[in-house]
């Protein structure tokens, strides 16, 4: 099974620890995608890493014209995606992809699924403030535009699960 992890620019040795036991399962290939502007040193991350660069993203975008340009122009907010063209390239044969809640990476992965990507989309949900997105239009847009595409939510604790249920997620 091929598993991808997309945590935008928050990949660290701490976040990766929860995924490391998966490396011991025979037949499991797990890769974390690391953005060029990642906030942490990933040298100690034990998972296989795929570096994402702005240069490759731009070149892939140019090769996908005019669609890639139209996607940027028609976006309701700035910076809606996280390496859209690169993830489209790399995730073609993945079985499962995990990301975190209400993020640009979630928006990107949901759109890739809408366009036919076959991976299961799993979202780690850490938001424990009910309806927080009403204070942020971009987050609200991502949440309402992506959640129907998600195959499975993983709340980080019971309080978060209760928040999700309160908001109508099942």
User: Could you say what the CATH topology is called?
Assistant: Rossmann fold
Largest sheet: 6 strands, parallel
Mean pLDDT across every amino acid position: 93
| CATH class annotation | Alpha Beta
| Terminal-residue CA separation | 26 Å
How are the strands ordered across the major sheet? 3-2-1-4-5-6
Element-by-element helix/strand order: EHEEHHHEHEHEH
Would you report the number of β strands? Answer: 6
How big a fraction of the residues is strand?
15-25%
**Portion in helices:** 25-40%
Gross morphology: globular
Please tally the helical runs, counting DSSP H or I stretches of 4 or more residues: 7
- Rg over CA atoms, rounded to whole Å, is 16 Å
Explain this structure to me?
The protein is an alpha/beta fold and 170 residues long. It has a single domain (2-166), classed as Glycogen Phosphorylase B (Rossmann fold, 3-Layer(aba) Sandwich). Helix content is 35%, strand content 18%. The two termini are 26 Å apart. The model has no long low-confidence stretch (mean pLDDT 93).
Label this structure with key terms:
170 residues; alpha/beta; Rossmann fold; 6-stranded parallel β-sheet; 7 helices; 35% helix
SSE blueprint and pairings:
Elements: E1 2-6, H1 13-16, E2 29-34, E3 48-51, H2 54-63, H3 67-74, H4 84-90, E4 96-100, H5 104-114, E5 120-125, H6 137-146, E6 152-155, H7 158-166
Parallel strand pairs: 1-2, 1-4, 2-3, 4-5, 5-6
Helix pairs in contact: 5-6
């Amino acid at each position: 099974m091929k598993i991808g992890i997309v945590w935008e620019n928050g990949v660290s040795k701490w976040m990766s620890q929860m995924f490391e036991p998966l490396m011991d399962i025979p037949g499991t290939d797990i890769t974390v995608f690391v953005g060029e502007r990642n906030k942490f040193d990933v040298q100690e991350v034990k998972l296989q890493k795929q570096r994402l660069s702005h240069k490759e993203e731009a070149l892939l975008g140019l090769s996908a014209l005019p669609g890639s340009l139209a996607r940027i122009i028609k976006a309701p907010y700035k910076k809606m995606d996280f390496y859209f063209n690169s993830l489209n390239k790399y995730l073609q044969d993945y079985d499962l992809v995990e990301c975190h809640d209400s993020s640009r990476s979630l928006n990107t992965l949901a759109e890739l699924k809408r366009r036919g990507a076959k991976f299961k989309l799993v979202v780690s949900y850490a938001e424990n403030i009910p309806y927080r997105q009403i204070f942020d239009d971009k987050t609200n847009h991502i949440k309402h535009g992506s959640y129907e595409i998600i195959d499975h939510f993983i709340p980080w604790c019971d309080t978060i699960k209760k928040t999700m249920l309160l908001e109508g997620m099942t």
